[in-house]
Fold this protein.
Amino acid sequence: MKDSDNLKDYRQVRQLAIRSLFEIVEQSSEGTVIVDKDARIVWMNERYARRYGQPSAKAAVGQEVEKVIPGSLMRQVAQTGEPILLDMLDTPNGPLVVMRLPIHDAVGKVIGAIGFALFDQLTRLAPLVTRFTQIQKELASTRSLLQARQAKYSFSHFIGTSARSLEVKRHARRGASSESPVLLLGETGTGKELLAHAIHSASARAYKPFVSVNCAAIPENLLEAEFFGTAPGAFTGADRKGRSGKLQLAEGGTLFLDEIGDMPLALQSKLLRVLQEKEYEPVGSNQMLRSDIRLIAATSLDLESAVADGRFRADLYYRLNVLPIQVPPLRERLDDLPALCEAILDELLVGDGRGHFELANDALALLASHAWPGNIRELRNVLERAALLSDEPLLNAAALRVAIGRLSPLPAGIMPKLSGDQDFYSARAAFERELIEQSLAAHNGNVVEAAKRLGLGRSTLYKKMVALGISGNE
Ligand SMILES: Nc1ncnc2c1ncn2[C@@H]1O[C@H](COP(=O)(O)OP(=O)(O)O)[C@@H](O)[C@H]1O
Ligand SMILES: [Mg+2]
């Protein structure tokens, strides 16, 4: 009979293979251990016993396996009957690659388990280990990115119980329960970004990423790649491998476009397409990617006048303007000042145990007389500066006056100059002239800056200046 005849009968081959498999595994094994169904060691080879500091294999017999091999999963295998084909076991002398199999009796009942330590020199597994460490690194960086992509604020962080604030919160909550785009309008520092985070946190997408892009902070030529990502091979150098765009990072979650009024027109068209078609192409690619994002946009510009001036696409504006939320400037909700100050001061702990900062009686009146062009961001800075300069935990008006720097009196401060027999239109012109002149003075005559602060489009402001006979310097 030829040897190959033995290979024709599968049942017989199986028996032969089982035997050689077992022998190979056992012979190449660095250690073998057998436990009963209560995970007590029944047999162990000498080498393995020594590795674990036992005087001999005999000394290990009868002990619970974890006492001899810390971290062993033999008990689990003996109890569940489920094998663990490949695993890594950390030991004081480096990791071992192990295999654990249940042992069945003649009628198929699990009566114990056998474990093999396959390799102690992981060099034989180098390709596998390299891949494993690489995947672990990727996992760690993805985890930290994901953490960075969680929203930082919820609605409870938005302080304010004035009628205006409550209305803003009510609208924003409604935004959170819908999938439509939300458009946050308001001056700088009024809390638009905070609200964007809060809307995401309260939405069905809360556990998906929150990704924000500041359209004013990224150079125009990089914005497209930042948005849509780049395809592998489309560029040389660092980007050769291709890069995920913000759209892809935000997939399933929320994309927050801050300062959307500053988005270049070309990109506006592409964004509109994404919103309509729900798909896009990375730069240099001809493959369409699906996009499922919820959009929240914010701007401190007057979008309507930007549309009128042709700087913002009308169709995109209508698309975004489904749920506009006007966030009022601080000077229009001065009722919230005490609560805001309290919350901000609570965060500024006094280092040397003097407790926490408080406002003196005259302080609030002073704060209420300032127009807060930088809104709550400015309020926070002023309180921080005053606290830093103060020797005591009570902040008075004088200390705050210093911290404010240039005081911008509230427009109300202009009103007394008006006389009762002026007509409405000339009074309004006087008010506008005063406000624009003050704003220009505050920005050294820079019309672009002044327009931003006033929440007007630049050309709207120019038109008003021409009409009122005010000259800027540009
Ligand atoms: N209603 C509020 N309650 C508490 N803090 C606020 C509130 N609005 C804004 N802030 C704080 O003021 C700062 C500016 O807010 P931000 O959301 O960045 O404004 P914007 O995006 O409108 O410029 C942040 O530190 C924010 O936490
Ligand atoms: Mg902002």
In short: The chain has a mean pLDDT of 87. The first helix runs from residue 10 to 28. The pocket of adenosine-5'-diphosphate (ligand 1) is lined by residues 157-160, 186, 188-194, 298, 340, 343, 376-377, 380 (CB under 6 Å). The chain has four domains: 3-124, 155-232+244-328, 332-410, 425-474.
